[in-house]
Amino acid sequence: MGNAQSPSADPRFVTASRAFTNQELEDLRSLFVSLAAQSQSHGKFVSPSVFQAYFGIDGMLGDRMFDLVTQNRNDGMLTFEDLVISKGTYEKGTRDEIEEFIRDLCDVAGDGVLGRSDLEAVLKSIHKAIFSPKIDENGLNSHENVLEVFLNASTYSKKGEGTAENGMSSADFRNWCSLLPSVRKFLGSLLMPPDSGRPGFQVPHLQHPENLTSDLLILRKEYAWHIGGALSQHEVEEWKLLYHSSINGLSFNTFLGNISNGDGPTVLIIRDAEGFVYGGYASHPWDRRSDFYGDMKSFLFQLYPQASIFRPTGANNNLQWCAVNFSSESIPNGIGFGGRANHFGLFLSASFDQGHTFSCTTFNSPCLSKTNRIRPEVIECWGVLLKGVQNERPDLVKGTVLERFKEDRNMLKMVGLASSSD
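and the corresponding structure tokens:
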């Protein structure tokens, strides 16, 4: 099979080979033989077009990946040695080696400056690979504007040399990947077999009533993919719409009633009067408490005008808040995430017509909107359907009252503590 089978004097190949088991090396050899045959190279190399078609990446990102795995030889030939060396670094290397490879991958221009134009090209390739966007009658990609929210999360503190465009420092790039874990997952799994359920490629199936038009929904597929980047694979299979304020009204009781029959996690999304879109992932069901609860799987996120995810820092355990019909000012009625009572990372009052968002150490998150005080215009809540778990949840219903809190409410009335928060 030509140079694919001959002994190698390249020490990089020898070192990389040690990172794989014998079976893994045989699997890589079988893959190479198959792709080389498709390339009509007499088994000697894999062509760029066959490589990109198999791994499902094209455009500038696909070109850049091929350049990196062929050691920038610019000869258009991927050898077996190249495949082993690149996968050995990209998938089996140290954390620093992997991060350096991914950062070099994003420098699609190959000029050593990782700028906004590079990231834009990367995101276009990602979007095409995952969503196969359709072109409208004017020849425009109707979803292309969503890429701006991912670009808006980037910073460029490295002054460019000989160019007007500033670049990303290593810290800038790490921060961007931290805010966008879906992007990081995608970029870190490109050389995995396409049929292996590659991380970063999965988009939750969004289940909602057929009579609810897409223009009423805040959660579009790109946003769901973004949020799913912080979740495990079984948590991004299917999400079901449990509550939508345009149908159910801005009602706390209806909200709680609609989500009360499910024990799984939920995704809360808000669009406010300023046009900002943000929310939180609640890993625990919304249960009436007088204090914070939850675990470190919860997080806050932004969707517009910037996409970001803010995970727990471990600074405190003030994760979820759900207070119903308390009369004490120290126990504000409503739902929230992070921070402290009356100064949450995100909070919706029980009236559902106001709330607030402050920077908080719980998630190291900033104010999620334009101002601290928020006026919700649309509120959505999606239930995360976990595989193998019974998730019999009702469709969107009209005006139901929270059944699970009836006993608590009656008891509060008896002692004169019930408020008019609903």
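(Above: one complete record from the training split.) Confidence is low (pLDDT under 50) at residues 1-5, 135-142, 390-422.
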